Amino acid sequence: MSQSTSDSDSMADDLTNRKTERRIGEMLVDDGLVKQEQVDEALEEQRKSKVKKYLGQILMRHGLVKERDVFKRLSRQRGIAFHEVRQRQIPEEIVAKIPRDVALEYGVLPVDYQDGELFVSMEDPFNRNLLRLLSRVIPAKIRPGIAPRDDLHFAINRAYNNLLKSNPLIKDFFDGFAYLLSQPPFDADKVIDLVLAMAHLLEASDIHLTFCGGKINIVLRIQGMLHDIPIPTRRLEPDRVTQLHNAMNIRSGIVASKRRIPHVGRIELEINREKLSARVSTLPLLDGERYVLRITGRLKIMDFDQIGFSRQDKDRILPLLKRPTGLILIAGPGGSGKTTTLYALLNRIPTEARNVITVEDPVEARLQNVSQVQVDPDHGTTFAAALEAISNQDADVIMIHELLDRDSARFAVESVLSGHLVLSSVYMEHAAGTILRLLSMGIEPFALSTALRLIIAQRLVPGICLECHAPHPKSAEFCQLLKLPEETPLYTGTGCKKCFFSGRSGLVTLVETIVVDDELRDIITAGPTLTGIVKHVMQKGSRNFRQDALAKCVEGKIAPEDVIIYS
Length: 567
Prior knowledge:
Elements: H1 3-17, H2 24-30, H3 36-48, H4 55-61, H5 67-78, E1 81-82, H6 92-95, H7 100-106, E2 108-114, E3 117-122, H8 128-137, E4 141-146, H9 149-160, H10 162-166, H11 168-182, H12 188-201, E5 206-212, E6 215-222, E7 225-229, H13 238-251, E8 264-271, E9 274-285, E10 288-296, H14 311-321, E11 326-331, H15 338-346, E12 356-360, E13 371-374, H16 383-390, E14 397-400, H17 406-417, E15 421-426, H18 431-440, H19 445-451, E16 452-464, E17 469-471, H20 475-482, E18 491-493, E19 504-515, H21 518-526, H22 530-539, H23 545-554
Parallel strand pairs: 1-4, 3-4, 11-15, 11-16, 12-13, 12-14, 14-15
Antiparallel strand pairs: 2-3, 5-6, 5-10, 6-7, 8-9, 9-10, 16-19, 17-18
Helix pairs in contact: 1-8, 11-12, 12-13, 17-19, 19-21
């Protein structure tokens, strides 16, 4: 047996044997927290239970005492320290003494370090196996203490979760969640409201809720990055998770009896007289269900100059917006900022002199002097119906949110050929492939070559936080990797509260552009290949994603790590 194992076993024996004669029930009665008859009833329930239950657990479950009161008496009874951890600020060097995975999995928090001894707060300081495990991974003598479980769980997440460390709103969420759990009966709707309100205040674009194995997981997408939102208790019972799951279905208009198929719904909440709306998408999992809530109607309209186009791209794009006809497409995957770019382009069109109509699902922001149509299949306003009606609305400029199928693509091309300027988006990885995608939808090559004017493909990558912007410590190494001159200065973010200690804040748009000229029209009409299109546009001076990423890295807008994926 190793010395560390012997130490952990003797430590557990010492804690176990360090008992007073007084029982927890007697101490609670003597301190005036419960009555003797309440303790007697709890002891009777304990005797009848087929599952082992502690007296303190029974009294807490009936709401007779608080967890803090029980744990304080337990610490006195066993002769171990009681730690107040909720408000305690623990230095980073002490937190680092226990690995994050160990702390989160086993409910262990380092609180102090003195003379070679590490003082830790634990959910169960009498667990021999856990003490033995800690002795193997921590090169220090362990002095266990105790804290209320919810306080301990909150403090562990605050110490190890960057979002929680940096934003006081998450603490308010923890406190609110814990309060709702303690208030019988459990109100699942209020918990859902709390999650929506938190996402709204943190300016999240998406909420990910996963119900799996009797547990719930919450993730927010903030400024393009995913952040885990830890639940403020390790004891969220499976039946309450089920209540939350059912409440989500009811609130979003999803038929719970058809859970094994994907659904689309909508959920709404009013916060300070502001209506918050989210589009809900569900996906059945092997042992549960996943919900993604896209918060709508909060898109910030950006000026064209803020998108991230080079001067060369601007000089080629802006004249096309003044032409009476043509098809302009924005390509990219979901969440790449296509709608933002469409709105920025529309803002450069003089709407006082031109009749502009949009068909959107959903309408992300209101535009001045623009007739915006919200697709609403439940009330008969489908994409097809809206597009058919537009043909009789004397439009000059038409914006179609997405070209989803052959019919919408054909409408866009035919509208251009009949004298309209059409803007739309399409799901595609890069600009050159967009041409082949439209041809695969059944658009005639000659019609496409005649209608198409411009393709903008884009990606969003994290920008360097301006608050902690600093020279990159491995600039020379990355210069060699990226084939840049050795003396080129590169930058990164060191991490601060504003960026949730990630070093990244905001999003930077990477773009590829293709302006359709006469030569490219001939290539499209003759039957193009991806290689042929790429070769032509590169010869004409267009730059691909890697070249754009490299340029923005040298400008200090993005870190070199975020360029590597395009190398």
